[in-house]
Amino acid sequence: xxxxxxxxGGSVQSGGSxxxxxxxxxxxxxxxxxxxxxxxxxxxLAVIDSGGVTNYADSVKGRFTISQDNAKNVLxxxxxxxxPDDTAMYYCAADAGLWCSWSDTTGYKYRGQGTQVxxxx
Length: 121
Description:
Elements: E1 4-7, E2 10-13, E3 18-24, E4 30-36, E5 43-49, E6 54-56, E7 64-69, E8 74-79, E9 88-95, E10 110-111, E11 115-120
Parallel strand pairs: 2-11
Antiparallel strand pairs: 1-3, 3-8, 4-5, 4-9, 5-6, 7-8, 9-10, 9-11
């Protein structure tokens, strides 16, 4: 069983930055982030595997950076150039797997409670 707890959400103006953190209680091969805005489907964002290999959705590539501190068992999402369309609840997710893909994060077995990100224009 893996437990995940996000933090770092908040309100920011358009063009601003936020860094989300996710404290994990266990180890899994794939860890990532997805988000869900009101009235919209879940959207996978980024994933990192246990070896540090990452991949991203096109919508956030170049603006968001996923990273992890293996010693502390913490996952991060650095978000830059935030826009109002980035407003959503952001979730940390984890699962085992041979291949880690950002598009699979919405269906990962383990997920946190979410942290709200609000971007105003």
